[in-house]
Write a structure and sequence with these properties.
The chain contains 9 helices and no strands. It is an all-alpha fold and 204 residues long.
Length: 204
C-alpha cells in the first residue's frame, strides 16, 4: 500500500506542481509516459482522499475512473485555477460522490460490485454452496487484478468493462494501437496465470 503523502514545505510543493503542470501538458499531447509519472506522483493523494470517503473495496475501481478521466481531460487543466493535485482531487471527490449517490439510489447494489460478471453469479446463485463458490471466485479475481500494473488494469477495464474495441481503447488513451494490443494480451496472459495459481492454491 502506498503511504499517504506527507505535508511538504511551500517550496517543495511549488516544484512538485511545476513538474506536474509540465507533465500534464505532455500527457495532453499524448505522452503516456508523462501521464504515468503524473500517476506515480499523485496516487498517494488520491488514495488518501478516497479512503476517507469510500469502503476499501471500491477504491481501486474509482481510482481507475479518476485516472482515466484525468488522462482524457488533461488538456483542460488550467494552472491559473488551481494546482494539479487540487484538480486531480476534485475529480476523485466527484467520482466518489457519483458512486455514493448511485449506491443511495440503488441500495440493492450497495453490497456488491455491479460491474463484475462474477457478482452476477452470486446474485443468481440458487443455494449456499453455489453462493460460496461464486464469492470465492470473485475474491480470487480481485486479488489477481490487483497484481496487474495500473496500465494493464486500465486497458483491460476499457476493453471488457466498457466493451471498447482495441481501436477505441487506443483513441481513448492516446496509446498506439500496437501498444494497446500488446498490453491487453499481456494482461490477459498474466490474469489467466494468476487465476490458475490461486485456484491451485485453493485445492491444496
Amino acid at each position: 500500500m502506498i503511504p499517504a503523502p506527507q505535508l511538504s514545505p511551500p517550496s517543495a510543493r511549488g516544484e512538485r506542481d511545476a513538474e506536474l503542470v509540465s507533465l500534464l501538458g505532455s500527457a495532453a499531447a499524448g505522452n503516456a509516459n508523462a501521464f504515468e509519472r503524473v500517476y506515480d506522483m499523485t496516487i498517494g493523494y488520491a488514495q488518501a482522499l478516497l479512503r476517507r470517503m469510500l469502503p476499501q473495496a471500491d477504491i481501486e475501481d474509482v481510482l481507475a475512473e479518476v485516472y482515466f478521466q484525468a488522462w482524457r481531460d488533461a488538456a483542460s487543466f488550467d494552472a491559473e485555477r488551481g494546482s494539479p493535485v487540487t484538480w486531480l482531487l476534485t475529480i476523485a471527490r466527484s467520482r466518489a460522490l457519483d458512486l455514493l449517490r448511485h449506491r443511495k439510489a440503488s441500495p440493492e447494489l450497495a453490497a456488491g460490485n455491479e460491474h463484475d460478471a462474477v457478482e452476477t453469479a452470486v446474485l443468481d446463485a440458487p443455494g449456499p454452496v453455489d453462493l460460496l463458490a461464486s464469492m470465492q471466485a470473485n475474491a480470487r479475481l480481485h486479488r489477481a487484478l490487483s497484481e496487474l500494473s495500473a496500465q494493464e488494469r486500465w486497458v483491460l477495464g476499457l476493453a471488457y468493462y466498457r466493451e471498447m474495441s482495441h481501436r477505441e481503447v487506443s483513441d481513448a488513451t492516446g496509446l498506439p494501437l500496437g501498444s494497446v494490443k500488446s498490453l491487453i494480451l499481456r494482461a490477459q496472459t498474466k490474469l489467466r496465470a494468476l487465476l490458475a495459481e490461486t485456484a491451485q492454491a485453493g485445492t491444496r
